[in-house]
Automatic annotation (TrEMBL):
GO molecular function: 3'-5'-RNA exonuclease activity; polyribonucleotide nucleotidyltransferase activity; RNA binding
CC per GO annotation: cytosol; mitochondrion
Record keywords, A-Z: Nucleotidyltransferase, RNA-binding, Transferase
Protein name: polyribonucleotide nucleotidyltransferase
Domain annotation Polyribonucleotide nucleotidyltransferase RNA-binding: ranges: 269-347
NCBIfam families: polynuc_phos, PRK11824.1
Similarity annotation: Belongs to the polyribonucleotide nucleotidyltransferase family.
Domain Exoribonuclease phosphorolytic: 41-169, 172-236, 350-483
């Protein structure tokens, strides 16, 4: 009897402790609703899920919910940069579906997941402290998808809130807003159906004080003034999210952790580096005869000479190398401010030398070689039957509304393009991102064709802005293939160097047609593609904690002026579709087959169609169109 009584009391205590823990966990739950000027609110919730993570937040817009978590190691990394990894995953279960692959489970990331991961990364990375070199991972898992509200901006805002609530040092928060343009009216956070009617699909990420952190979008040849209005409105609407997350952080956020900063070089060592290298660095950077390779070799030899002369000091070689690189970056930027001239002798608004060539090889349906300075891209066009269209995975279809693509661009960046040794194989995240950007730049000008069009862009040499060179070369190759583009398209990259003080940017220089070294040493890589009339795609990779709208507006203007000049040069090579078609171009015929005879045409298991293709090169589509290719 005593044992039974003791057991009942222990169960009561156990349930009481569980109930107390439940009440405690509910007390730590933080929620807020963020209202925009129009439309549904954005709901942020933290404290329920993933409490072992350094920070976690669920963002819900409509019935689309994304859980974002952040974890950062307590031990400092050996890297001299922030080792940040962002993984965004779309789960089939979130849409009430089962994956269609053999294993019926999520496998490697799809292209859309990779592009969204890069979108989140570019929005968050600029706001980390410069000396924070700790391994950090941000994981965004889709919990629910309604097929109406695109999840990309939801994931960015969830990651922003998770970082703000965590103890990880970060100078946020940020807010992300999507803009559409329907009947000349800007729409904030458009639905999937709205985007089908919209001539603009722009994501704007901004932080407080109306500073732009990231831009990415595509447009149906939108006018410059409409794009600028959209950027301004997106920045304004993002302030609602920033203020909401700041309030949530103030009430429920963790105190930011203290972390060790890398040891700084003594002033005597810094002075020694300056005295040994300043004059020689200036000589190298002002020598107009240098190209990419020779300049890199000269700088590498000087770096090694300085390290050898300072090897007797008790300073780590990596620290010395970082000190030299910091000094090199300072001189590189100072010389631009001093002379308004760049290291290759160009003025700030000047383009590199451009050359174009089409019809390189007879067997190709269309081909072009675009050379801009030391950036060289070979583009080829291939036509095939509609059955060769690129099929989308199930979740991409639900979130974007696109079932298949009859025009697509594949971008390749082999290691020899930069004179290096590297792996070959499936494209990585960088190739996927650059290819998608170039494709968005060309899609609005490509007409609907009765066959599938595949455009490949292979970078043979790279010294900056290879993705925008792919737009230029792709436009030339499509004209060479005989496609009646609505207008030729071109792309250009705009750079930036700034001088900053405690309150913000004190002075700046905008650089047209970015070099590789200017991208590495500078503060922005702003890519824009379009026609003479308007803009088709843009992507801003900003490396400082936000840009004022004034600089963004000037950059857009510089890009529009530059792409018009590039199109003039391209038109001297080819300015209209090729009229004479090649012998190997596809010939399309439509036949009508009576219903009761179709099985005889197809054959058992499609045997007749396979035999027809092998012997004659003729493909029959499901709609009974004949596609004849020369063999």
């Amino acid at each position: 009897m005593l044992t039974k009584k003791y057991t009942i009391l222990s169960r009561i205590r156990q349930r009481s402790r569980c109930y107390c823990r439940l009440l405690s966990s509910q007390a730590n739950v933080a929620e807020t609703d963020i209202q925009f000027s129009k439309g549904s609110p954005l709901k942020l919730s933290s404290g329920r899920y993933a409490r072992f993570a350094d920070g976690a937040c669920v963002a819900t817009f409509g019935n689309t919910s994304v859980l974002s978590t952040v974890v950062s190691k307590a031990k400092q990394s050996n890297n001299s940069f922030l080792p940040l990894v962002v993984d965004y995953r779309q789960k089939a279960a979130a849409a009430g579906r089962i994956p269609t692959n053999f294993f019926r489970r999520e496998l490697g990331p799809s292209e859309r997941e990779i592009l969204t991961s890069r979108l989140i990364d570019r929005s968050l990375r600029p706001l980390f402290p410069q000396n924070y070199n700790y391994d950090t991972q941000i994981v965004c898992n889709m919990l629910a998808m309604d097929g109406t509200n695109p999840p990309e901006t939801v994931a960015i805002n969830a990651a922003s809130a998770a970082l703000a609530l965590s103890d990880v040092p970060w100078n946020g928060p940020i807010g992300a807003v999507r803009l559409g343009l329907i009947d000349n009216e800007l729409v904030v956070n458009p639905t999937r159906k709205d985007l089908e009617k919209s001539s603009l699909n722009l994501v704007v990420t901004a932080t407080k004080s109306n500073l732009v952190v990231m831009l990415e979008g595509s447009a149906d040849i939108i006018l410059q003034q409409d794009l600028l209005k959209a950027i301004k409105l997106g920045t304004k609407e993002a302030q609602h999210i920033v203020r909401g997350i700041e309030k949530l952080q103030k009430d429920h956020g963790k105190m930011k952790r203290q972390y060790e900063t890398p040891p700084q070089l003594e002033q005597s060592i810094i002075d020694a580096i300056k005295s040994l290298s300043t004059m020689k660095i200036r000589e190298i950077l002002s020598d107009r005869t240098h190209d990419k390779i020779s300049r890199d070799v000269a700088i590498a030899e000087l770096r090694q000479t300085v390290l050898n002369q300072l090897r007797d000091t008790e300073v780590d070689v990596n620290q010395l190398s970082d000190g030299f690189n910091t000094h090199l970056r300072t001189i590189f930027r100072d010389m631009i401010f001093e002379t308004d001239t760049r290291c290759d002798g160009r003025h700030l608004d000047e383009l590199r030398n451009i050359s174009c060539q089409v019809s390189l090889y007879e067997p190709l349906h269309g081909s072009a070689l675009f050379q801009r300075g030391q950036t060289q891209v070979l583009c080829t066009v291939a036509f095939d039957s509609p059955d060769s269209a690129l099929k989308m995975d199930t979740l991409t279809m639900l979130s974007s509304g696109i079932k298949e693509k009859s025009f697509f661009l594949h971008y390749e960046f082999p290691s020899y393009a930069t004179g290096e040794v590297g792996r070959t194989g499936a494209p990585g995240r960088r190739e996927a991102g650059h290819g998608a950007l170039a494709e968005r730049g060309l899609v609005p000008v490509v007409p609907h064709a009765p066959y599938t069009v595949r455009l490949t862009a292979e970078v043979l040499e790279s010294n900056g802005s290879s993705s925008m060179a792919s737009v230029c070369g792709g436009s030339l190759a499509l004209l060479d293939a005989g496609l009646a583009l609505s207008a030729p398209a071109a792309g250009v990259a705009i750079g930036l160097v700034t001088r900053r003080n405690e309150t913000g940017i004190d002075d700046y220089r905008i650089l047209t047609d970015l070099l590789g070294i200017e991208d590495y040493m500078g503060d922005m890589d702003f890519k824009m593609a379009g026609t003479k009339k308007g803009i088709t795609a843009l992507q801003a990779d900003i490396k400082i904690p936000g840009l004022p709208l004034k600089i963004v507006m000037e950059s857009v203007q510089k890009a529009c002026d530059a792409k018009s000049k590039i199109i003039d040069i391209m038109n001297q090579c080819i300015d209209k579709p090729r009229q004479s078609h090649k012998e190997n171009m596809p010939v399309i015929e439509e036949i009508e087959v009576e219903v009761h005879k179709r099985s005889k045409l197809v054959g058992v298991g499609g045997a007749n169609l396979k035999k027809l293709y092998v012997e004659t090169g003729v493909q029959v589509s499901s709609s009974l169109h004949l596609y004849i290719f020369s063999l």
